[in-house]
Here is the input.
Amino acid sequence: MIGICFIWAVNVVVGRIVIADLGTPPLLYAFLRFAVVAILLHRFLVPIPRPFGRMVAVGGLMGAGHFGLLFLGLQYASPSTAAIVVQFGIPATAVLSVWLLKERMSRRRVLGTAIAFAGVITVMWTPGGLVPSLGASFVLASAFALSLGSVLMKGMPRIAPLQLQAWVSLISLLPLAIISGLTEAAPVTHIANGGWPVAAAIAFSAVVVTIVAHTGYYRLLQLYDVNLVAPLTLLMPIMTVGLGIVFTGDQVDIKMLAGSVLALGGVAVILSPSRGTLQRRLAAVSKPTKG
Here is the structure.
């Protein structure tokens, strides 16, 4: 899990460098990432997931919506800011689950959600008040898109990780191609001028991040208790902040530190197992085995 979080953190920093420093159009970058994934995973497009309409909504939100907005955000926001603000997605998922799926929210999750929201607001706060930067706003919207897509996916039959990645990638191609073509000037020229660094970044994002890391994470969720695996994802923003300081010169001030502690602390509260879960786990460990 540590390796997976490190890959995710590197991906954020690489995305920032490719988009902000090398001038790669963010939506075209997202399109090429998904094009590579769709080609490599084309054999997983069969059978077609049902209901297909919901799959289209899920794919659009989790693919074009989340990554398109995230890469737009990285055009303006530092990797450190993006890594913290995107944590908004976890409490947002909890709230959307209550609203759309009528799930119940424990007091612990309500507390964690409030703390996490306070942390994100702290990171986005400026001397003039809550006037988020353009980059942070895009990242916030990307987190919400991923949360909504995740909640909608709960209403679908179980889908294999590689099949999910294949369909999310395929569904994302058309909207990203249209919006990139309409809003990004001479995108192909920018990619050509980027040379091998941009090509390597696209390959890394598509193969190592999407196929290897994401699939590995889903596999861990199948092998181990969610309450054991999910909290370890908090390593990702911590690693991203560290890498951002080293490679992109991120400035981490008191406001950023305070917001990060609140946001990650709130997420940790949400992801932590309940008292009943802990008691059952301890009982299972202490129960003598028959031999």
Summary: DSSP finds 13 helices and no strands in the chain. Residues 2-286 form one domain.
